[in-house]
TrEMBL record:
Domain Putative peptidase as annotated: residue spans: 34-264
Name the record gives this protein: Putative peptidase domain-containing protein
Signal sequence, renumbered to the chain: 1-18
GO CC terms: cell surface; extracellular region; fungal-type cell wall
GO molecular function: integrin binding; metallopeptidase activity; zinc ion binding
UniProt KW Signal keyword: yes
The keyword Signal belongs to this UniProt entry's keyword annotation: yes
InterPro entries in alphabetical order: HRXXH, MetalloPept_cat_dom_sf, PRA1-like
Keywords, comma-separated and alphabetical: Signal
Organism: Thermothelomyces thermophilus (strain ATCC 42464 / BCRC 31852 / DSM 1799)
Pfam families reported for this sequence: HRXXH (PF13933)
Amino acid sequence: MQLQLLSALFLFGTGIQALPASAAQDQTTSISSSTCTTSSSSSSSTATPTPYDFTAGAVPSYPIHPSCNSTLRRQLERALDETVALAAHARDHILRWGVDSPFVQKYFGVLLASTAAPLGWYSRVVAADKGGMTFRCDDPDRNCETQDGWAGHWRGENATQETVICPLSFSKRRWLDSVCGLGYTVAGSPLNTFWATDLLHRVLHVPRISEGVVEHYAEDYEGVLELAATDPARSAIDSNTLQYFAIDVYAYDIAAPGVGCTGKPEKSEESD
């Protein structure tokens, strides 16, 4: 009793007031809560930076214009997929055999020092970014309407990254599963018999893929072989050479393995 009285007198003398146990506990809880809130607020205000992703915004597939309705879009999507498959196999054939391939020697010349150039073009068709390109089904330049036999065209100076596919393409192009069938031969049939070769030609017009380097130096199968013998450097950047090589190795490796269907040249007119 005396000890409690002395303690009370001491607190009174020093001006310190004793808090009830419940009040002390409430004050401790309030301080702790305030500390947690401050810590949480501080953490949320420090944003974690987004990791760098070099593929962000990339366009890996060939864009198709809204002018293509659902039916045309499905066909064009399949056609573009087959174009990529054709180019991918041409690339893979070169990677497998290099300059030892008789097809490489035939189309790019026996004096070809490196397969890097054709390999690079096929790789660009397969994997280059396609942003800014488009395939459309309307006729903004009226070439489908006014040019007899046109199945499509690159828009050139009117729109360098755009390609128009005319209605005729949808009625006459064939799929890769018919290569070496129905009398088709690489040398004797039109180069644009298949969607894949036709669209390979068309994407090689577009600067996004060709970088303005691939051109037309040979007109037909025989011209392609002559170019390989006389100017192999140009063969590697010739659009028709790249198409003929791709379909010939596809025929030999995939369509009719070990046999192919090269055939012999026949004079025939091709429409663009």
